[in-house]
Write a structure and sequence with these properties.
By secondary structure, the chain is of the alpha+beta class. The chain has 14 helices and 10 strands. Helix 3 packs across helix 5 (113-132). The termini are far apart.
Amino acid sequence: MAKRRYYRRPSGLYETQRTINGKKYYFSARTEKEMDEKLMNFSNSIKKGRLFSEVANEWYEIKKKNISSGTKRSYDPAFRRVLQYFGDSRIGSIEPYNVSAFLMKLKEDGFAKKTVSNNFIVLSMIFKYAIINGEIRDNPAQYISVPSNLPQSKRLPPTDKQIEIVKNNVRHKYGLLPFFLLYTGLRIGEALAVQYKDIKDGYIHINGAVKFNGNNPVIDSTKTKAGIRKVPLLEVLEKHIPKGKKDDFLFGGEKPYTQSMLNRRWTSYWKDTGETEEIVRRYKKRDGSIAFAKDYKAKVTPHQFRHEFTSAILEAGIDEKVAQTLLGYADVYTMRNVYQHIRDHQLEIAKNTLDRYFNGR
């Protein structure tokens, strides 16, 4: 009689165990053949590492503690996409062609270059984390590049309608912030960091910016060294600045707006003025179950008013180097090529000028 390779219980069930890196794993099967298959599959899975989802979730829990809320907002959708695509794969089984296929799918789905790049960055960081922790030896993303000819997302200013809304609704309970952004060109974090003592001698002095640690506002340095500057307090804005204590913040009082306060006020303002769209939010209930609720999203973001101000001052004939200083850009190239919006009426002026020129020849 052949010697049994596995212990067999009186019930007929086969059992065995294996120890890998000090950890014991137990197996049971109805037949020796079934046990052989289970052990082979287990051996292959050990060689190929944990599930991608396990490693990725572990990485993100650590990563979230060391990034700003703004960075987290850009990483969140990218993380969800890579998790959905690779989640059930063993991390050691992912090859460069799998990474390439993922990026090509994003391209086929019509995502812009910045979005695809964010997904690629997040995926690469997960693989690097896996290497450091001994999950894999090689990063399959290092052999791949972001696909070429991806559409570029356009940075557009608010619509003419939205600009008129801001001009006509400064007395709305939340109307000062969009009005302030329209006539200063400040980044939202810079605007939230402005204290009354920073408004003096006809200028607004920018010395820092609000960044969010979770929901809490933290005063940090400006985005670039060029961000420390002073911008003109235009007459159209000055008459609407309320009185306040010198150490109070223009938006928030003793403390700047929290992230949730900013979001609520911004959405409420645009909902009241008719510039929101309905969305469905997914949230977790106290019992852990997932629920959905109708919500609203503003059709315009705070940063779009920076685009508008940039276009306006260049259109007004302000020298580019002066405009760069006012806006706190690190270089003229960024200001000119990324943010300047060519308005429809500017194109019309160009058309009329060319018509007159060629008609007079």
